[in-house]
Amino acid sequence: MWQQLFLGLLGLCSGIVIASGAAGLLIGLSIVPRYAGITHTGDHVMLYEDASLLGIIFGNLFVLFHVSLPLGPFFLAVLGLFFGFFLGSWILALAEVADMFPVFARRIRLSRGLPAVIICIAAGKCIGTFIYYLYMI
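Given the sequence above, the corresponding structure tokens read:
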């Protein structure tokens, strides 16, 4: 009994630490304010930060206690789409912070077609993800 309580508390605390680090990276990269600026909803930044915190808490609880929501395959597909948007945003934000695309374009002397290269990278990521999940299931 005590061992299970200790392991449950340890798992919850570990998940909160890891998720808080991810949220710190999200804030450190200024993704939330950038999205608020792009969508012209800068007045709601606190709401976005609260939603991030609730996502951390509920995500940890769902993983720790193996909560499942029987909402069907359509909901799963929509959720996967939004997860993909979120992950793609992180990847592009990291690439933007590291100035990866301008450095890459200078190194290979790419003067035209950089938007096509970026679209091909995104398409490759999408196709790779689809293939991964196709064979994973």
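Helices lie at 2-28, 31-38, 45-64, 73-97, 100-107, 114-136. Try to locate this feature in the token string yourself.
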